[in-house]
Amino acid sequence: MAYARDLGAIRALIASHKRWDMLFGICGLLALMIGVLTFTALFVDMAIDGIPRLNWDFFTNFPSRHASQAGILSAWVGSCLVMLVTAFFAVPLGVGAGVYLEEYAPKNWLTDVIEINITNLAGVPSIVYGLLALGLFVYQFGLGQSILSAGLTLALLILPVVIVATREAVRAIPQGIREAAYALGGTQWQVCKDHIIPYSSAGILTGVIIGMARAIGETAPVITIGALTFIAFLPAAPISAQPPFVSLEWVMSPFTVMPIQMFNWTSRPEAAFLQNAAAAGFVLVFMTLAMNGLAIWLRYRLRKNIKW
Amino acid sequence: MTARLAYRRSRILRERAIELTLFFAAMVSVFTTVGIVYILVKESVVFFQQVPLWDFLTDTQWTPLFDDAHFGIMVLLSGTLTSSAVALAIAIPLGTIIAIYLSEFAAFSVREVAKPFLELLGGVPTIVYGYFALLFVAPILQWFYPALPGFSLLSAGIVMGIMIVPYVASISEDAMRAVPMSLREGSYAMGATRYQTAVKVVVPAAFSGIAAAYILGISRAIGETMILAVAAGMQPNLTFNPLEPAATITAYIVQVALGDLPHGSVGYQTIFAAGLTLMLFTLACNIAGHILRKSFREAY
């Protein structure tokens, strides 16, 4: 009799533990749902407010005092140009640093310092990069509040992302590839240039895209260096019909970028400008989501197709 | 023979030059850190020559741009700490539960969808979250609690918490996934349920990684700028009440940068002193995280 009662107690215990399992599973799903719901709310809320403003004029008009005529022309052109400068500096520096750390670096204290430093830099708040740029690029180097200053700042900001992605991609290449290349008499640089970098390029690209998606949405450092919020002209065109055809005048031009334009509109009380902010935000989210999505898809393809 | 030797020498020279170039690329990150410290300290030294350090730490007013200037960093720090506390109260429980769920409970297909989704959520620009906090979350909160002002640390903090969830969840999950399968198998063999295994075996084993995730979350919250600049108001306010509006260190820097203060004025230097304070806080977090990772690491 006592045996049966014990059995009943044990069964009850098991059942209660199973209930805990269920309960926690539901909690987990709920927590995930909160994330999903927030994201949906954010996207839908902005779409409802913003999409009516999205038309051709919105992309081809300069900002204006009249909300209905205001557009994001100078903002998206500015964002594109800043991204160009950012990529120009961040990609070679990041890839170079990543390849150095994986392929060249000797095991010594200096390498340790570089590695710890990169980890720490990833944790520095973005606005501190803005202060660095304000003190160093804008005043010390005299670059002013230009596209070049902003591009350099954002390049430094995303450098850790590019370096980490490069290192991971390089590390995934089997040692045999290097040995084969060395066996044929290649120098270290030839091995890197003809084998390591090409084979890791998809992984590097993923990191670069994620970094650029982050840079395009960064507001704080760009405001800190003193980007203007009201720009009603475009920088000088980089390509012209007369010789010398290519001009670099645009890098020193004042500018504004998409997130700053959105911030400017968000901080106004009039509802019409808030609509503009929603529309600009929608474009911005669309761009970053597209870039991040592309990177995730690339990584997925890479994982599936890799065969050494 | 000499031609070949010359060729070889030039080849070695080129190799050395390339190695040096790559080395400099790697050193750029070190130069960046040195640059940050140099700029912050240089401008702060000038600032502290005009404002005694003691006043900076103990004054209870922050009015650097008024005639009667006061520089009490406590005022800005209270906003930063309060909003961070709200954010962490959301991000840590949610992030941990999501991480445990994804690592121990979820089916493979759920994880395959949820992980990239969390990554996307982490990629949304913070200015967009700011807009969301001001124009979506704040009105909803006001509906529950009508006395809440339009700008408040609460609405900014909640959205900031949601912004941090993906970071905490993703790093914690990685740490839990790294716990060897044999520990779980041992636990299951003793008759433990999934929940017991997750909470009593996997989480303690992955503790160093989870703690590192929390610390990253804290330093994100302290350094977050745009959500607070948009949704928490820019009025300095010495308060630990999340229902009030208040400026944070980061929001103050943005506010000053938006105006045009002349280069070299005290107002200009305050943002570097404020930035130095911010930097010291995040540095402390980073070091704490490093120590935690080192001392609690379980070797398998």
Report on the structure:
The complex is a heterodimer of chains A (308) and B (300). Chain A has helices spanning 2-50, 56-60, 73-104, 109-121, 126-140, 147-171, 175-183, 188-217, 220-224, 258-266, 271-305. Chain A has 308 residues and is mainly alpha-helical. Chain A folds into 2 domains: 2-51; 56-305, MetI-like fold (Orthogonal Bundle), CATH 1.10.3720. In chain A, α3 packs parallel to α6 (147-171), α5 (126-140) crosses α6 (147-171) and α10 packs antiparallel against α11. In chain A, 45% of the residues are buried. The mean pLDDT of chain A is 86. Chain B has 2 domains: 2-50; 73-296, Orthogonal Bundle (MetI-like fold), CATH 1.10.3720.10. The longest helix of chain B has 49 residues, at 2-50. Chain B is flat and about 70 Å long. The interface between A and B is large, with 91 and 83 residues.
Low-confidence segments of chain B: none
| CATH architecture term of the largest domain in chain A | Orthogonal Bundle
Shape of chain B: flat
- Tell me the total number of β-strands of chain A: 0
Q: What is the N-to-C order of secondary-structure elements of chain B (H for helix, E for strand)?
A: HHHHHHHHHHHH
Low-confidence stretches of chain A: none
Instruction: Indicate the multimeric state.
Output: heterodimer
Strand content of chain B: under 5%
Which structural class fits the helix and strand makeup of chain B?
mainly alpha
The number of helices of chain B is: 12
Instruction: Report the count of strand segments of chain B.
Output: 0
Report strand % of chain A: under 5%
Q: How would you characterize the largest beta sheet of chain B?
A: none
- CATH class of the largest domain in chain A equals Mainly Alpha
Q: Helical content of chain A, roughly?
A: over 70%
